[in-house]
Amino acid sequence: MKIVHTKDTMSAIYLESIALRQEVFVQEQGVPMDIEIDRYEAECIHCLLYTDMNEAAATCRLLPLTDNQLKLQRMAVKKIYRGQHYGRLLIDNAELFAKQQGYTSITLGAQVTALGFYEILGYTITGEAFTEAGITHYPMSKNL
Q1: pLDDT digits (tens, 9 = 90+) for 65-84
Q2: Is residue 120 part of a domain?
Q3: Are 137 and 110 a contacting pair, CB within 8 Å?
Q4: Strand, helix or coil for residue 80
Q5: 132 occurs within a structural domain
């Protein structure tokens, strides 16, 4: 297994990340493509976890909000790899990367079905539910 990061929206890493996001969000969850790919792509750090067989298994992106805070977004794990802790490994890596870059907190919008996952990782709900792309989310955050 390996985890890589990129800001290059022309790289193979980014393109594989987008393909995985399209599979999970657009095809599985019905999120419109014009919402999934947004104007922040080039500002984000895109993280991609590869299996030992070099297959893209999990992805997320980190959007800098301030000098101290990132927003974790577009967290997705390929269906056949769910339940194998790839999501946790990817987030652990993203948090370590964020700390190394000097960030002190991460926020995110968790789909209601993923609340327990993020709570196990130390994130806490910070506000009221909201709907994005027809899916209920809760704002969450964690100090690093």
Answers
A1: 999 999 999 999 999 999 99
A2: no
A3: yes
A4: helix
A5: no
